[in-house]
């Protein structure tokens, strides 16, 4: 008789732990979004509850969505834009240097050709 009640109590305990465990796990992206001051934290929270009905199939996407935002750098694309801007300016400088070098080569070749022509005339 005691073992029957003990088994029933253990069964109820395990069911409650699993129930609350699933709720805690599904709330991880929302907690991350709250910590990071994410601009879409309410949407992430609602989507987390929706993920319960989809058997957590969208949960990994919520986790990715929550981790993309950081308050100090936003979505992180500003740095990429700055790097592209810097690369563009470096490329422009290199193109200018190449054109200067091409002119210098043309000038040197012209000088050589004029020396060769003068040397043949003597």
TrEMBL record:
Keyword Transmembrane appears in the UniProt entry: yes
Chain ranges passing through the membrane: 6-25, 46-66
Coiled-coil regions listed: 77-111
Keywords for this protein: Coiled coil, Membrane, Transmembrane, Transmembrane helix
InterPro entries: UCP028770 (IPR011223)
Pfam family, one: DUF3302
Protein name, per record: DUF3302 domain-containing protein
